[in-house]
Specification:
Elements: H1 3-23, H2 30-44, H3 46-49, H4 63-97, H5 105-127, E1 132-139, E2 150-154, H6 165-177, E3 182-186, H7 194-201, E4 213-216, H8 226-235, E5 239-240, E6 244-250, E7 253-259, H9 275-279, E8 288-291, H10 298-304, E9 308-311, H11 322-328, E10 336-340, E11 343-347, E12 367-374
Parallel strand pairs: 1-12, 2-3, 3-4, 4-5, 7-8, 8-9, 9-11
Antiparallel strand pairs: 2-12, 6-7, 10-11
Helix pairs in contact: 1-2, 1-4, 4-5
Length: 375
């Protein structure tokens, strides 16, 4: 079964559970409960219906509508979790008392209000301009000339009807204010066609760093015309690294910067990620900073000789607890720093995220400022 079908089926079941276990028992009029049930069903399946106004990954609808739908979808998700906990607690209470008991109506009111409030907070956290996160990463054999070298990592910008040009302009201002030596964007820059996102991506041409701005592709680049987007990135001054590398020089010392494609490329008949090809011909003995959108192949990068891998893709898991599920699909890598066979791996929570699940709770977005240190 295709993963999209599984996804739509899962969200549909989620909505049905909320209708049956939360809405139906409410002591409200049948008309009101029917209206809430229909709304819940539509919002639960909004990813399926979004194809009417574009695609599942980029519905071309007003930003306010995207925010409202994500708020309601987040509310449904949280109500389902809270209702399940309430049902378990009620069942345990019935076992202790050895008779049937039902949850008080006030409990449903409380969990409903809590879900509405938390979902609103989650959407706000997802849609904001991210705060700067400062970290230092030690790299083995890093030349002293590169000690203190500042790399700003942007990733998962997902420029769309949720993250439009004004948001991109704010991110560019925050990035340039850090006065980076190098800016890297590790994939998923856009959600939408070149025609629909032309205005939203325009601010990225103002990104400025002493050693340039480089980009490696993510899976979403392949959903909307990979070749056209890579050409557009070049026009904006973003230098693509797709199974390729460049050599950065500072004070006579060298640092290799490499980038690979995304596994999604294979479905499009394009070259998949190949770290060996990416670093072929690189000067011997020089540390390699590798850009790889997905973190799950970090062990392959380490064995190939990478000194540091920067990744995104996971959005950090978005919600505390849910991140454990996301980690299982990424070989355990979901957020922050890891040591992979002696190679540091850093997985950013993401500068933004996909507008189809725009919620963050306990997993903040980030604009990552990385200072390299000699190990």
């Amino acid at each position: 079964m295709e993963w999209k079908t599984v996804f739509h089926l899962a969200t549909g079941i989620l909505g049905l559970f909320v209708i049956v276990r939360f809405i139906a028992p409410l002591p409200w009029s049948m008309r009101l409960r029917m209206a809430l049930s229909v709304t819940t069903a539509l919002v639960s399946l909004h990813h399926l219906f979004s194809r009417i106004a574009g695609t599942m990954f980029s519905p071309e609808v007003p930003r306010a509508a995207i925010i409202a739908v994500n708020w309601l979808f987040g509310t449904i998700l949280l109500i389902a979790v809270f209702q399940l906990v309430l049902d378990i607690a009620t069942a345990l209470r019935a076992l202790v008392r050895r008779r049937w008991v039902s949850a008080p109506t006030v409990a449903r009111y409380v969990l409903g209000m809590a879900a509405l409030s938390l979902a609103a907070f989650g959407v706000n956290q997802a849609a904001r301009v991210p705060p700067v996160k400062h970290i230092e990463i030690a790299i083995r054999d890093l030349p002293r000339e590169f000690d203190g070298f500042r790399v700003v990592q942007l990733t998962d910008l997902h420029l769309s009807r949720l993250f439009e040009a004004p948001w991109a302009e704010a991110v560019v201002r925050e990035t340039n204010a850090l006065k980076p030596d190098l800016i890297v964007i590790t994939g998923d820059l856009i959600d939408g066609t070149l025609e629909n996102r032309r205005h939203d991506i325009e601010p990225l041409k103002k990104l400025s760093a002493a050693h340039g701005v480089y980009v490696s592709p993510g899976n979403h680049e392949y959903y909307f015309g990979y070749s056209d987007w890579m050409a557009r990135f070049k026009e904006l001054g973003l230098r693509p690294l797709a199974n390729a590398h460049t050599v950065l020089r500072r004070g006579g010392a060298e640092l290799v910067l490499a980038g690979v494609t995304d596994p999604t490329a294979l479905a499009s008949g394009l070259p998949g990620p190949d770290v060996h090809q990416a670093i072929a011909g690189a000067p011997a003995g020089v540390p390699i900073l590798l850009l790889n959108h997905q973190p799950k192949q970090a062990a392959l990068s380490a064995r190939a000789g990478a000194s540091l891998q920067l990744s995104g893709h996971t959005h950090g898991g978005m919600i505390v607890g849910f991140d454990r599920l996301i980690a299982r699909f990424n070989n355990g890598y979901v957020s922050g720093r890891y040591d992979v066979e002696g190679m540091p791996l850093y997985v950013s929570n993401g500068t933004a995220l996909w507008l189809g699940f725009a919620l963050r709770m306990g997993v903040p977005s980030e604009l990552t400022s990385i200072v390299l240190r000699a190990a």
